[in-house]
Amino acid sequence: MSTIGTFTIRPLDPEKDAELLHRWVTHPKAAFWMMQDARLEDVEREYMRIAAHEHHHAYLGLHDGEPAFLMEKYDPRHVELVGLYEPEPGDVGMHFLVAPTDRPVHGFTRAVITAVMEELFADPATRRVVVEPDVGNKAVHALNEAVGFEPEREIDKPEKRALLSFCTREQFEAARGASA
């Protein structure tokens, strides 16, 4: 997606990035992130917890060197989906959040999710990406479908009713080829 710019991903620094993340996760467009009422300390504490977790990692995505999105990667055998489905070897869970902007760029969010998927599949051990967005988040369901995710079923998580969806490397490549 060279017309949109260059994406890079770096590990999140909970202390340094907390203020930026706080603005993002409390923005009305981030309602499905479920941190609308979080204080700065809450955001810092949550990302310190993730940073210390062996099976959950947070990254800051940059667009042309500027912070533009948040990406979380987790092992669904240990985090988020424990007991809610039968994980397969090579499953990797993912969350992403695009920074709010006053100047939306057409195709930007799709470019972000594509960059996130490329990053996850850059690891040869990743065979399938697992997501569990809120059933009401129609925009993200459409984005997920656009990059190859197939919904499996609705599940009940403690904080939400979620749509469990999967995307294999082959499904991602096919979706990417179809959109080229």
Automatic annotation (TrEMBL):
Q: Which segments constitute the N-acetyltransferase domain?
A: 7-170
Q: In which pathway does it act?
A: Siderophore biosynthesis; mycobactin biosynthesis
Where is the secretion signal located? Answer: none
Sorted alphabetically, which PANTHER family does this protein's record hold?
LYSINE N-ACYLTRANSFERASE C17G9.06C-RELATED
Q: What is this protein called?
A: Lysine N-acyltransferase MbtK
Q: What stretches pass through the bilayer?
A: none
Superkingdom of the organism of origin? Bacteria
Q: Which InterPro entries match?
A: Acyl_CoA_acyltransferase, Acyltransferase_MbtK/IucB-like, GNAT_dom
